[in-house]
Structure prediction request, 868 residues.
Amino acid sequence: MKYEAVIGLEIHIQLNSATKLFCDCANTPGDNPNTNICPVCLWMPGALPVLSEQVLEKATLACLCLNCEIQKQSAFDQKVYYYPDLPKGFQLSQIHHPLARGGWVEIRDEDGNPKKLRLHHVHMEEDVAKLIHETEGRIPISLVDFNRAGTPLMEVVTEPELKSPHDAMEFLKALRNQVRYSGCAECSMESGSMRCDANISIRPTGSQELNTKVEVKNMNSIHHVGDAIAFEIKRQIDAIGSNEPITHHTRLWDPEKRVTIAMREKFEGPCIPDPTVPVITLTDPWIDRMKALLPELPDHKVKRFIEEYSLTRDEAVLMGSDRELSEFFESALTFGVPARMSAGWIATQLLPALKTHGQTLADTSVTAERFAGLIHLIEKNEINSNSAKTVLEKLFETGGTALEIVEQFGFRQVSDTSEIARIVETVLADNASAVENYKNGNKKSMGFLVGQAMKLSRGKANPKMVQEMVANQLG
Amino acid sequence: MESKIFIHMNTSEPSGIEGPMAGTSVAIDPNISVENWPFTALSTALEEYVALEDAALVQRLRTSGATLRGQTFMGELGLGLYRDTGGAAVSNGLVDLVIKTDTTGEVRMAAANSGCFGFKPSYGLVSRSGMIGLVPSMESCGMLAGEIKTISTALGCIAGGANPLDPSINKADIKKVLQDLEHWQDFQTRPITVGILGEQDNTAVEKLSRPGISVKKVSIKNLALTPMLHNIIGSVEASSSAGRFDSVRYGHRSSASTKNWNDMYINSRGEAFGPLVKAYLFQGGYFQYQNYSAFVDACRSRARLVQEVDEALGTVDLIILPPSAKLRSALDEPKSVADLYEAFSSTVLASLTGHPAIFIPGAPGLQLLGKRFGDARLLSLAARISNILKGEI
Prediction:
């Protein structure tokens, strides 16, 4: 029998608000342990939670970026469970009345066709404390760091309508891009600011039933999510093949062994309405104000880049999927440089160079203006692309404009016919055997001669002119 | 005698701050935080725990010039009146005012047993920030005093949050209460209608039949359900609220050797809670894990009950609630949760619905229920009715 997979994802995203969800402590969990704490986020008796307005705004913006319907009324519930990372015995989460319902994210399916994946809802919740288990030493101890306790999360829950690892990975990329656009979260699976659990079940292809699902956790990259889902689908099909029952439980992805491992029975604790945090009531004008704060979203921006700048779809996606990059790109264009050439240089030269230098677009000294200066010189044939790469490197190292660097280091392209003619003549005279080879039918010798001419000009000759002149001379 | 009534006495000098409460001595339940005072809510689960800061309402008491005398005994975590000494502190003249948590009717029943006034404000009028309890959706900071004026003056001082610490407090509602307090005299003379709930064979009610006061019957269909609704919702919230008492960072920790943290929790909690709280938490656990639909139904019935009470109050200025049949037993140690609810059956209504209520002492006394955030009017009318009962007007 043929089987198909039914996949639903639950994604936790750390919001980048200044404070925690219910108190004024800094939302920087990575600080020295137990430095960002107060009676509220230590969950001490008598302390009352007070909802942060900034968190509410950030969560709302992020939901709007995902095309969700913001709920006029939402509320927190107490999700009861007892564990040392949650010493008040319940987590505040919006189980019954989430902040937003519906919504969708558009991806491309395996054949490149657009496909909408629907969201069930998005809600806010508080994170729990972090346990650090020190197993070295004679007596193993567990330490609790409350810096993370009470920091704000939003949880995105999809409809169970993803079909494949491809869907899941594309969904996560699109989700990450869209939420990052809102400026409300970093969304890095590698650093843990975005965490994804997958619920996976299988059924005979074409069937409509929803079978027992298995939850898979512990994937810390988008690729791991794809790998874990692929493994789990195969594991379940094999299990059915050998008549093993599939039970509702949680499995952990082991990235070393590349398998999922059974962890525990799925536990659902009780969940009661929280009586301490008031019901959140949002008015239309407030929601409209949030909508007005929305940036142009990647989908729309990609379409616009194609129409406005005649980029190919791939180029537009590359320039448009990251907000910072897209803003750098458009900012460079304001200095009058051609769009496709800029996009190409950003993608193939600037981004790798930033990586090498350990910089980002936000903190690099290669501003859009300085970068545009470089493109300008390339466009006007003032420098050739070889020199341009060196100039780009110099832009990182020194403070001048591209033009100043070209003047200072003598990178200007030689396009003077007589000078190039002199160089070509010298090369042909010095390499008589290569000229002979060419005339005897070895066409590759032409490339060698052009290379020698470029070398003689120390890379500054206009390669197109050298090429033409060598070809002419060889007849 | 003081050592039997106070569990902690303030030894610091009075602040000398001039304010509306200057000269008023106040005792506080030990579940309301006063910086550096014991903060145990009289539970072993909070043994030796000391408050880190002043509760919002305590800050307000201080700036109003009140003298904080100390802490009186209370039922464990605010549940019931067993061992409670709040009423005795007032009736023995040790303090002018006791600030006391009202969860099932503790303030009103303490008043009924000690011959003083006991007032439970509208839910949300006085900040709950800095209060340890079990049932967050019902607990209110109530007041016990020999004079209504003491209560109304204090209410004027403590109403409202330690802005913005408690957004559950609606500022417009608070403003209304404070404005009403300034029109105290209006309610002493204008004609009023008093609602009588159920069949009441009460001589006090008869005394009210006089010019300027009309009396009419009102009914609340689901009144008989109130102890059960309070029990289900209260125990569920309590089970969740008391989850934090894990013996790790404060409170009693069992000395029994255990294999893991879970055993440590269980042993410590088993040793820490008294029998009433323990039985209550078991019930809450039952409804949470085994019979959640009963809890959902109870929440729905509670919402309907609020509507019913609002409707009944729509045609009258206040409602006189039926008296308690088990007045005295409220002070005894309850043998079961059912005992507790039997003793407090006449007071749980206001706790469930969040309406203000006051007990007026007398032979017998009366419990009055007012409109939400009609607290100042209720206090003024209670003073008027009390004067009638005493034959003073």
Remarks:
- Residues 423 and 453 of chain A are 6 Å apart (CA to CA).
- DSSP finds 15 helices and 17 strands in chain A.
- Chain A touches chain B through 25 residues (CB under 8 Å).
